[in-house]
Write a structure and sequence with these properties.
With 115 residues, this protein is mainly alpha-helical. It has one domain (4-13, 33-109). It is 36% helix and 0% strand. The protein has helices spanning 4-16, 45-58, 68-71, 100-109. Helix 1 crosses helix 4 (100-109).
């Protein structure tokens, strides 16, 4: 059974952020397993930050337990780690998938559930 919150989160993401990627024929099919940060069409960290801020405000979800870097970790970039000073070395971390279902579940609870 689909709840009002499930519909609201899905509709919010579909209308606000589920756009057709460059060179694709159509926008990705949205399912509860759709990931915002991994998979075929991940969002860049800047867009991910914008999406999550909008989500927390739009659905009045407490974000105090949300760790952005779990889902969009720092990337090493162009400068190799061996050239960086010790204080600026970046460890390579794989992002945890952040799915539509996680947004739905947290909106139902009113707080971020997954860190």
């Amino acid at each position: 059974m689909v709840t009002d919150i499930e519909n609201a989160v899905t509709e919010w993401y579909e209308t606000s952020y589920n756009v057709k990627p460059l060179f694709a024929k159509s926008a990705p099919v949205l399912t509860p397993e759709t990931s915002l940060n991994t998979g075929k069409y991940p969002w860049a960290r800047e867009t991910g930050d914008e999406i999550m801020k909008d989500y927390f405000q739009h659905f009045n979800v407490d974000s105090s337990d949300f760790n952005f870097l779990s889902y969009w970790p720092y990337e090493k970039g162009i400068l190799p780690n061996f050239i960086r000073p010790k204080s600026q070395k970046i460890s390579q971390a794989d992002p945890k998938p952040l799915t539509i279902q996680m947004l739905i579940d947290s909106a139902k609870a009113g707080r971020w559930l997954f860190d």
